[in-house]
Amino acid sequence: MSNLKNLIVITGGAGGIGQACARAFKGQPLIITDYSQEKVDETVNLLSKEGFDVSGISCDITSKKDIDSLINYVSEKGALKALIHTAGVSGTVKDLKRVYTIDLVATDLLVDAFYELAEKDSVVILLSSMMAHTVPPNKEYDDALINPQGPESFDIVSRYVNNDSDMMYNFAKRGVQLLTHKNADRWGKKGARIVSISPGVIETPMALKAAEEHPEKMEMIKRATPLKRNGQPEDIADVARFLASDAARFITSTDILVDGGVIQNIKRMGQKI
Ligand SMILES: NC(=O)c1ccc[n+]([C@@H]2O[C@H](COP(=O)([O-])OP(=O)(O)OC[C@H]3O[C@@H](n4cnc5c(N)ncnc54)[C@H](O)[C@@H]3O)[C@@H](O)[C@H]2O)c1
User: Fold this and answer.
1) How many A from CA of 15 to the centre of ligand 1?
2) In the chain, what are the domains?
3) Which distant-in-sequence residues (6+ apart) come within 8 Å of 128 by Cβ?
4) pTM confidence score
5) Nearest to 255 by CA among 192, 187, 199
6) Distance CA 76, CA 157 (A)
7) Which parts of the chain sit beneath pLDDT 70?
8) Candidate of 33, 34, 36 to mutate for ligand 1, largest count of ligand atoms within 8 Å of Cβ
């Protein structure tokens, strides 16, 4: 085992928010992971040239085997400070089961696996979405969302989403928030914390793809945003850095909405997005 302490592990590390999160932790040892080894290598090379202490390994977060390899890789490098889980897909993926599996089931798998590495003051930061805040509480689907690996979970949630992958994304991201509440006691016993961040529209490859599909929706969202702009990946990364720091030591089992204020306006105006 090497001497590295305070490891920051970032899933989706080759993506827009993932890379920005990496840059927010300069000076701390980083482990980047993403779906393809090629993207991981590209990101590690880029960040190394910028002076970051970074290494990486590919991991398909839907594969238990890949997650086991990631856990071994991390544990050989040192002690876990934070897992920042940004890997995900949007509703532009027109396969409801794939959206549910990547965005929610894989989140559950990762949180369970990383529990073994958690120590006092470790933190898990999950990425939800402002869209999760449009899904109201409901006993039947919430029970399914909070147990995404349950055999009937996907079928139960599917009954509520009208065969719409954007809607499935919103439900899966509600599930991410429910997972933070579900795990807070268990992590708390170790002195560790678990939180989620709900971004609004953040200008990354994911959002730009969604914008191509729904340009009028994106324009409406910008108009309804009190701060009159879309978010930048750094807007999320700065919050992640705060949540991983000692300044956030009493924050767990909650969601931080980072959306320029837009979702409250949209709900108040009763607009469907
Ligand atoms: N960008 C936005 O406007 C926005 C808004 C709300 C929430 N979010 C959430 O923030 C997170 C990051 O989004 P982003 O905008 O940086 O997206 P992005 O597409 O730039 O990055 C996502 C990364 O996840 C990786 N990934 C996808 N499936 C994977 C898998 N099976 N295994 C491993 N890696 C996988 C992709 O390769 C990609 O690098 C996502 O969870 C997203 O849902 C983004």
Assistant:
1) 6
2) 4-268 (3.40.50.720)
3) 173, 174, 176, 177, 196, 197, 198, 255
4) 0.97
5) 199
6) 38
7) 1-5
8) 34
